[in-house]
Amino acid sequence: MTLVGVGYRHELAAWIDSRPAEVDCLEITAEHFYEGGLERIKAMRHWCPLFVHGLELSLGTPGPLDKQALRRFATVVEAAAPLWISEHVAFTRTGEVDLGHLNPLFPTEESLAVLVSHARELADYCARPLILENITSHLRLDGDLSETEFLNRLCREADCGLLLDVTNLYINSRNHGFDPLSWLHELDPARVVQLHLVGYSKENGRPVDNHAEPIQAELFELLGEVLAYASVRAVIIERDQHFPAASALAGELRRIRGCAHVH
Asked: pLDDT, tens digit, for every residue of 105-150?
């Protein structure tokens, strides 16, 4: 069975607290609970499975992981008792400079070694299975490996899974001129654990990932291809702007569940 749910956001709290039938699971963004709210997490874990998602651990930055950030992340993990934890194939800081957003990595042997080491450390520290997410990039970065080779080796060598962001895959395919289905079929399907999905926005005619729009038909089509290719355990809708009416979000969840049941 593929679980279907949403990323927990304060703006959706009242609806989520009503325990809507469309929500099988919730994804908790760790950084949103660093200033409090752990009791709310503990309450939610008693009625649905949780996953914990991180934004700021910067697994792609060479050198040791930030110990304070690691401890804060682990505190949320302890409260949530999640099925798994997740972070990004990215870096958010260089040295002591916090860049404030996710940045892509060159797919090189050097980057791979850093990520594998940090992924293993994070999974061991939190004592939870780890999955890592593909991000969007304004530029297509080339290196020693193709992106899919990089991801397959990362999952194999770090013994982790993949959080495949379907929207990010679509956006990158449009902006960098490649076939998303060919890219998908280069991945090891056994490593694809969870999906993210949200509608894309457009800036200067280019699709961008603002987590602000309803899910478009072409994304549902790509979702269906992914679900046919891999035995995905969960699909999460992400929304951070322009929050829709609960009925609209519930409708998207039902449509995702329909796609999952077909496969």
From this structure: 999 999 999 999 999 999 999 999 999 999 999 888 889 999 999 9
Q: What is the CATH number of the domain that holds 63?
A: 3.20.20.150
Q: Under 8 Å CB-to-CB from 118, ≥6 apart: which residues? A: 57, 59, 60, 65
Close Cβ partners of 145 (under 8 Å, ≥ 6 residues apart): 107, 108, 109, 112, 153
β-bridge mates for residue 103, sequence order: 91
Determine the Cα–Cα distance for residues 175 and 139; give it in Å rounded to an integer. Answer: 8
Rounded CA-CA distance 238/4 in Å is: 12
- Residue 195, Cβ density class (10 Å: 0-12 exposed, 13-18 middle, ≥19 buried): buried
| Total domain count, the chain | 1
Neighbours of 21 (CB within 10 A): 9
- The model carries a pTM of 0.96
Q: For residues 60 and 51, give the distance between their C-alpha atoms in angstroms, rounded to a whole number.
A: 21
DSSP annotation of 10 reads G
How would you class 1 by CB atoms within 10 Å of its CB: exposed for 0-12, middle for 13-18, buried for 19 or more?
exposed
Instruction: Write b or e for each residue in 111-144: b if 16 or more Cβ atoms lie within 10 A of its Cβ, otherwise e.
Output: bbebbbbbbebbbebbebebbbbbbbbeeeeebe
Check: CB of residue 117 under 8 Å from CB of residue 153: no
Per-residue pLDDT tens over the stretch 75-114? 999 999 999 999 999 998 887 777 677 989 999 999 999 9
* Full residue range of the structural domain in which residue 123 is found: 3-262
Average pLDDT, integer, range 206-234: 95
